[in-house]
Amino acid sequence: MNPLNVTTTEAVDSVFVLIFSISAVMLLGIVVTIVIFLVKYNRKRHPHPTSQVESNMLLETVWTIIPTILVAAMFYYGWEGYLTLRNVPADAMQVTATGRMWSWAFEYENGRISDRLYVPVGRAVKVNIHSEDVLHSFFIPAFRVKRDAVPGMTTEVWFRPDQPGSYDIFCAEYCGREHASMITTVEALPEHEFNEWYRGEKEGKEEDKIQALLTKYGCLGCHSQDGSPSVGPTFKGLWGRSVEVTTGTTKRTLTVDADYLRRSILEPNTDVVVGYPAIMPSFDTMDSNDLEELIESFQRSSAASKAGQPGEAIFIRQGCIGCHSRDGSTNVGPTLKGILDRSVTVMRDGKETTLTSDDDYLKESIINPGKDVVKGFPAIMPPYDSLSEEELEQLVEYLKSLQ
Fold first, then answer.
1. I need a surface site. Which of 111, 216, 263, 346 has the fewest CB within 10 A?
2. Inter-residue contact 272 to 245 (CB < 8 Å)
3. Residue 78: CB partners within 8 Å, gap ≥ 6?
4. Do the beta carbons of residue 101 and residue 319 sit within 8 Å?
5. Helices (H), ranges, 41-154
6. Residue 376: count of CB within 10 angstroms of its CB
7. 3-class secondary structure, 401
8. 226: which DSSP letter?
9. Per-residue model confidence as pLDDT tens digits over 301-358
10. Distance between CA 149 and CA 325 in Å, rounded?
């Protein structure tokens, strides 16, 4: 088998089908023979043995030669499949995967880092695997590849996706408390989409799209995009932000999501952000496609702006994503969604106290996590005191953006 022409999926599946087919035929033949013998040589029909045959050279030769041929065939195709898995195509794209409790981080040749493995469809990808702590196992069932991640050692796998899609990546080696949560995905993209993502062009196009819509409907006359004060609330960090609004005569706090944005555009005076005048006109005549595109653009722009921050690369590389969610879901450690200025109940020297999650708290929690342990969570976070001052600042800025 030529690894330039055969994918890892084809190599493994062909051997599996061969061995399974041989086994199925052998099983069927043995079962049929047993049934025939049970009927033909039933003791009720033949109470006393009558055969005087002591040997049959032909039969013995057949059942020696045929199994030998079958075993040799299975070995040959199994060995060819193994060579396909081990011989990496020379033009394979190089990616470094780092496993640690309990997350995967992927670094590309241009220095880009992601918590998902983005790859182009139709091109071979070589993944160089490392572990920062304990044994892990890098397993992509869809591409039939699995390889241990061993501390102090580099291992490798390769695969070639032939269809766009999202494919699960698991850790197949028990590695501690949240082993089952050590899951991410391979995102196989058409080549042009991958190239856009790889060069960072995709984020730029999303910004152009939202800019065009905001200009078209005159939104920038009242809303800034850089956080500066204006007639209305700034669009900077809009998606996922907690906002205090007045609904009728009642004050309440809402999260900026698709429903909130849709209501704010079509019925702007229903929920008026506290501190701003109720002067925004209704855009109920806005084209429905533009409305949905504008809402989706805000969401994508928010994700892209966070992904572009250097702090996210540090967040992924240091394995923070293994214990802390960014969407509010439960994990080993507290969620980081809305972490800025949150009231946090912690245990300090065995006593319960409440702190505000500001810059100083975040920095102290990173470099000295055992000092103030959030109530209800285990004290298992290691100190990250090896981060430089610049890296610490970048990481804190990224955490503050997770609203």
1. 111
2. yes
3. 15, 19
4. yes
5. 57-86
6. 8
7. coil
8. S
9. 665 555 556 788 788 878 887 788 887 887 888 888 888 888 888 888 888 888 888 8
10. 23
